[in-house]
Amino acid sequence: MKYVDLNNTELNVSRICLGTAGFGEKLNEEECFRILDAFVQAGGNFIDTANVYCKWVEGLGNCSEQIIGKWLRQRKPDGKVIVATKGAHYSFEDPSKSRVNREAIRADLEESCRTLGKDVIDFYWLHRDDPEKPVEEILDILEELKKEGKIRYYGFSNYGTERLKEIEKCLRERKLPGITAVSNQWSLAGINPGGNTNPDPTLVEFSEEEYQWHCKTKTASVPFSSTAMGFFSKLEKAGIPVAAEKEVDEIWMQTMEKRLTGISQEQKRAYWNLTNLRTYEKLRKLQKETESSLQALSLAYFFHQPFQTIPVTGVRDLSQLKDALTACEIEMEPELFGGWIKQGENI
Predict the structure, then answer these.
(1) What is the pLDDT of residues 31-79, one digit of tens each?
(2) What is the pLDDT of residues 223-277, one digit of tens each?
(3) How many CB atoms are located within 10 Å of the residue 279 CB?
(4) Where does the pLDDT of residue 174 fall: very low under 50, low under 70, confident under 90, or very high at 90 and above?
(5) Among candidate residues 32, 57, 61, the one with its CA nearest the CA of residue 47
(6) Taking CA 209 as the corner, what is the angle to CA 207 and CA 214, rounded to the nearest 5 degrees?
(7) Tell me, what's the pLDDT at 164?
(8) Which region holds residue 237: left if phi is over 0, alpha if psi is between -120 and 50, else beta?
(9) Residue 220 pairs with which residues in a beta bridge?
(10) What Rg do the C-alpha atoms of the chain give, in angstroms?
(11) Residue 154, φ and ψ in degrees, nearest 5
């Protein structure tokens, strides 16, 4: 396992962050414990969760945090793991009502601390933005929590570039450190316009504008959905030939799409496009050269960016975890990755 000092913090985190959105919904407690144990044994120490995870299922509550909290109490890792959680997501009972306010954020944080069994959260994300609220007010709330010792560091998830610029400007004017990290949706597979697998309009997809902002500010990126739900691996499993083996046209695309039996309609709508097929071609070529899986290579892509990038990836079993961990050990020259896609072309 390799580690990085997270931007503007004293946190030394693993290059892979374990995502836990499926804990309690798609995976039972025993399966979750097995994955957490294996992740930590392999040297992983950065775990991502959220107060809202599983609340979309009636009766489950903040099940992801509950399982992680129980695991922490039983395993007692004693500071060996860094748990990042999130608050201020909208309520599923009233999605139109913003919860980016002092009362809601404190309520979420208190529930998270109680559930996780922690007095202080190592890293706290605001899970959603409220464009109508001045950034000064949002920063006031977060700085209060930091001064009270309830959180050590904070970042922003699903925030657009213009809002990030406003926050950065406010921090600079207050003579505070810049934004530590941003967590938006980003993978090597580009998303078709309007085709996101998650139709939530408050979700923020990584953009070329944000890429350039990260390059300029060197703010860390902690992207979620970092493997596009295993899209490239599923293409390989479906036996899709590399695009260069045949001239690609609309008929070829339609024929190949019918072979995608292991991919949902939502995933096809999101990721089935020529740009991603060209990326798939590059991955297959590198696969032969490195003997690495497509899943591992698509994660390794993030380690060759001009700014700090720590992908969040969830797994269903130990074999998928092994794949993710392998990505940390892939050593390649940056140009092998940088030459694939022009800035912004895949997004």
Answers:
(1) 999 999 999 999 999 999 999 999 999 999 999 999 999 999 999 997 8
(2) 999 999 999 999 999 888 876 555 667 787 888 888 888 888 999 999 998 888 8
(3) 25
(4) very high
(5) 32
(6) 95
(7) 98
(8) alpha
(9) 181
(10) 20
(11) -140, 160
CA distance 180 to 110: 22
Q: Both tokens of residue 61?
A: 């509550």
Residue 22 has phi, psi (to 5 degrees) of: -90, 0
Q: Is the pTM of this model over 0.85?
A: yes
Task: Please say whether the beta carbons of 318 and 346 come within 8 A.
Answer: no
Q: How many whole angstroms separate alpha carbon 193 and alpha carbon 9?
A: 35
Tokens of 164: 């990030």
Over residues 124-135, the pLDDT tens digits come to 999 999 999 999
Six token digits for residue 325: 């961990």
Q: How many CB atoms lie within 10 A of CB 342?
A: 9
Say how many CA atoms lie within 13 Å of 76 toward its Cβ: 1
- What's the 3-state SS for the chain? CCEEECCCCCCEEECCEEECCCECCCECHHHHHHHHHHHHHCCCCEEECCCCCCCCCCCCCCHHHHHHHHHHHHHCCCCCCEEEEEECCCECCECCCCCCCHHHHHHHHHHHHHHHCCCCEEEEEECCCCCCCCHHHHHHHHHHHHHCCCEEEEEEECCCHHHHHHHHHHHHHCCCCCCCEEECECCCCCCCCCCCCCCCCCCCECCHHHHHHHHHHCCEECCECCCHHHHHHHHHHCCCCCHHHCCCCHHHHHHHHCCCCCCCHHHHHHHCCHHHHHHHHHHHHHHHHHCCCHHHHHHHHHHHCCCCECCEECCCCHHHHHHHHHHCCCCCCHHHHHCCCCCCCCC
For 293-339, the pLDDT digits (tens) are 999 999 999 998 999 999 999 999 999 999 999 998 887 765 565 54
Residues 144, 128: Cα–Cα separation, whole Å: 19
Give the whole-angstrom CA distance, residue 251 versus residue 255.
Answer: 6
Tokens of 54: 């599983």
Closest by CA position to 205, among listed 181, 216, 220, 189:
189
- What CA–CA distance (Å, rounded) separates 292 from 288? 8
